[in-house]
Amino acid sequence: MINHSKRLAPLSTGIFNQLLQYKQEQLDLGVDIIDLSIGSPDLKPPTFVTNTLSTSALNTDLYGYAINSTLEFKEAVTHYYNRKFNVTLKGAEVLQLMGSQDGLAHLALAYLDPGDIVIVPDPGYPIYSASVHVAGGKLYHMPLVEEADYLPSLEQIPEEVCKKAKMLIISYPGNPIPAVASEDFFKSLIEFGKKHEILIIHDFAYCELLYDGRRPLSILSIPESRDIAIEFNSLSKSFNIAGSRIGYLVGNANLLSPLAILKSHFDYGVFLPIQIAATKALNEGDQFLEDQRKTYEKRRNTFVESLSNEGWQVKIPAGGMFIWAKIPDGYTSFEFTLKAIENGVVVTPGDAFGTHGEGYIRIALVESDEQLRKAAKRLSSIY
Ligand SMILES: Cc1ncc(COP(=O)(O)O)c(C=O)c1O
Fold this sequence. Notes:
- By secondary structure, the chain is an alpha/beta fold.
- The chain folds into two domains: 6-44 and 287-380, Aspartate Aminotransferase, domain 1 (Alpha-Beta Complex); 65-284, Type I PLP-dependent aspartate aminotransferase-like (Major domain) (Aspartate Aminotransferase, domain 2, 3-Layer(aba) Sandwich).
- The protein is 40% helix and 14% strand.
- The strands form three sheets. Strands 2-8-7-6-5-3-4 form a seven-stranded mixed sheet, with helices on both faces. A three-stranded antiparallel sheet has the order 9-12-11. Strands 1-10 form a two-stranded parallel sheet.
- α5 (127-135) links the parallel β3 (117-122) and β4 (138-143).
- It binds pyridoxal-5'-phosphate (PLP).
- It is an enzyme of class 2 (transferase).
- Its EC number is 2.6.1.-.
């Protein structure tokens, strides 16, 4: 038998397959299921984007290897960053990706030598850790806890770890934690990164989902951040085009270059019609983004209010696409999740994102208000 590489050993086949199987069993038993487990948007992309994509897809000149980003896409990103986050970028400070996952998956390979440490949030989005395993690095988990508003305590990271760490990854609003970072926190993070020469990576995939009048905060808007920080961004959640793969990394060109070199060997770029449609989305999508933000805000309010009416105490998130809810005593996250599926709602157990996620579930706001109301009732019946 030919064995797979040892670096794959820490990668499990994934909780989502297990949930899918259990969901199917319940469906076979006739249970009506509302699936709030996966963060794939149910909302549709803007028509002007799908029209551009379909028209471009008919142009047979656009089927060659793209290799690089078009100039127009880079310009669209620079204008978008300027308009939205008051951040000035040059074209060379934008690296196009086949979705931000592409960059998050490969960055560790571009930066790590065996044994280098990467500091990741716990709970955190799984690719942060998986990419480090594959690259032969080591992980240090920063707990994100409710009492500290889900901001990590940088002072508690041991000096030994700081010395060996090469990168630190965070995400606000994140997945599964829908909290937002304060400007002061970002400032201390930049200071920390500079002091210890640790590359600070901010995953800003949910930058368009901030509620109650809050403004999204790009880490690149923090003074001196360019020396040490880079930021991933994505069109997947903003424009509901998660399947048409495109995203980008922004920051100092020198910091982007290791990943650019690696990618020049690994892939041949994003399909040009997708680049053209994404350019249009970034240039002309502001009204769409505003309307969509209101839709998610309403969903958040509906769901949290419905849960609260049923006696749950759920913290109302400041942003993002998820509700991070503490489960009742007497269950593990996984046990509660199985119970939830039996009651007709698929959620994700918090420990799928790290040990500090135990005691919580993640609920994705990917259904209509009416379905969310129904889901809240079903979850509450488990209490
Ligand atoms: C926090 C976070 N970052 C990055 C991604 C990857 O997004 P994409 O590769 O579609 O840009 C996701 C997708 O769910 C996510 O939740």
